[in-house]
Design goal:
2% of the residues lie in helices and 39% in strands. It contains 1 helix and 14 strands, in the order βββββαβββββββββ. A hairpin with a 2-residue loop joins strand 9 and strand 10. The N and C termini lie far apart (44 Å).
Length: 191
């Protein structure tokens, strides 16, 4: 309050970034874009769909890119929504994405990476139909699993990855249980 009893409130957002890392965020969405700092790949996940020059958390252009090495069967919006963006990623990311019915592993490739650096990759998959969808994620020998059923708070984490000689990391997703596999979003962290 000031000396006359007046008061003004203003909502503000503060973002803190780690000076020793940089991250890019990718929304694999049906048609709902996520706000910055998210890079959006919207629509069907067709084979060789590529998004280059991803923007990082400071909105700076990076040399990073992502390519879908395999085509997904469909898009979906039947995913979890927290209603207040309290999940591991925003509702606009976890609420939509790709789905696949097949038994063949699906792959995405991150490109433009620096072979002298290391990378962590966090992937999220979500669906709210109550169906089992257990998937194993693998890259450069790192493994993790994630159950997409009713998921809004968990990620599959592949850590301390070294890019190959061409500056790429390929993530392979293999369905372990259930009839569908999902992909909603990813974070690539360089350190």
């Amino acid at each position: 309050k000031d000396d006359k009893g007046g008061m003004v409130t203003q909502l503000m957002s503060v973002t803190v970034n780690d000076a020793n890392t940089r991250s890019v965020y990718i929304n694999f969405g049906a048609n709902e874009p996520a706000q910055a700092p998210w890079n959006n790949i919207l629509g069907y996940g067709n084979i060789n769909t590529t998004l280059n020059n991803l923007r990082d958390e400071t909105n700076s252009v990076t040399p990073f890119g992502v390519t879908l090495l395999d085509g997904w069967d469909n898009v979906t919006e039947a995913r979890q929504r927290t209603g207040n963006n309290t999940g591991v990623f925003p509702d606009s990311v976890i609420a939509g994405g790709y789905l696949d019915f097949g038994q063949t592993p699906m792959r995405i490739r991150f490109t433009g990476l620096n072979p002298a650096m290391r990378y962590n990759i966090a992937l999220v998959a979500s669906q709210n139909e109550g169906l089992t969808s257990l998937v194993q994620y693998e890259a450069a020998g790192a493994l993790d699993t994630l159950e997409a059923r009713n998921n809004s708070n968990s990620t599959a984490n592949l850590n301390n990855l070294a890019p190959d000689a061409s500056g790429g990391i390929t993530v392979t997703m293999t369905k372990l249980a259930g009839e569908k596999m999902f992909l909603s979003g990813a974070q690539l962290e360089e350190f």
